[in-house]
């Protein structure tokens, strides 16, 4: 990575070493509908990560725990349209989605999800079939709209477009702000299971509903992508995110989700993203919280490797490969 840009966790990096983990900043912001600033979110998260403690208690040691981390240069595009930018983003992500490196994207608005899904199509764990993939989505919003303000690739449509690409299963948690249209799709589409915040966080009965949700995560099978929109957390933890919403997950709820997804004995988390990060001026709470979540994801990945729940497809090739023909985005 360029020497004038921060590395994840402030760790020294050897640009010549084949990485086990790659952190991919995606400063994408074209369809935000309320708060602004996600274009600067990945850099803010990288800066804040330098203040995060390296010790992962589940590992009993400090990160990178014997793994090689690489912080890649931020994605950039001068394409003239939103669809062309999505094509460019897929091209940026695709070389890192070949199964021999664990990719973690930092966004940027949640519109990064469809190009990430398109980039994963040739991952060896999927055997060319996105229908094998389960997406676990932490989010305040369902992101299942057909369009928002006339744009079908709005951040508010990210999950819908990912399903349209062929994702086989979507498990959502923390949703507490969604439209009637989205409610109807949740009911009608048997690929979607939504655990609403009003149920999992409800006083009294919420604990038992939450336990039932964690049991579902424990029972996951096959390849998994974890998509963490930080507004899934309670707004007090991430006040600068694009649309902070009260009533969300606590820090410890989020930690439990991450640990459960990565520890599922019959599942393999092949990729992840942390998105809707916005720099909080005057206080680093939002970007620091995002950095903590990203750190926990990589700590959980390191533990999964240690316990044999992740293995590189081709350990001899741990780096970007030649770009393959990309998906071409078009209006659905």
Overall tally of domains: 1
* Main sheet specs: 8 strands, parallel
User: Which residue ranges are poorly predicted, with pLDDT under 50 across at least 5 consecutive positions?
Assistant: none
Query: How far apart lie the N and C ends?
Result: 36 Å
Mean pLDDT: 91
What structural category do the secondary elements indicate? Answer: alpha/beta
As a percent range, the share of strand residues is 15-25%
CATH class: Alpha Beta
- DSSP strand tally: 10
* CATH architecture classification: 3-Layer(aba) Sandwich
Order of helices and strands: EHEEEHEHEHEHEHHEHEH
Describe this structure in words.
With 332 residues, the chain is α/β, with parallel strands linked by helices. It has one domain (19-306): Arginase, Chain A, CATH 3.40.800.10. Helices cover 29% and strands 17% of the residues. The protein has 9 helices and 10 strands. The strands form 2 sheets. It has an 8-stranded parallel β-sheet, sandwiched between helices. Helix 5 (180-188) links the parallel strand 7 and strand 8. Helix 3 runs parallel beside helix 4 and helix 8 (251-263) runs parallel beside helix 9 (285-306).
Topology:
Elements: E1 21-26, H1 41-49, E2 55-56, E3 61-62, E4 69-71, H2 82-93, E5 102-107, H3 113-119, E6 134-138, H4 158-165, E7 169-175, H5 180-188, E8 192-196, H6 197-200, H7 206-218, E9 221-229, H8 251-263, E10 266-275, H9 285-306
Helix pairs in contact: 1-9, 2-3, 3-4, 8-9
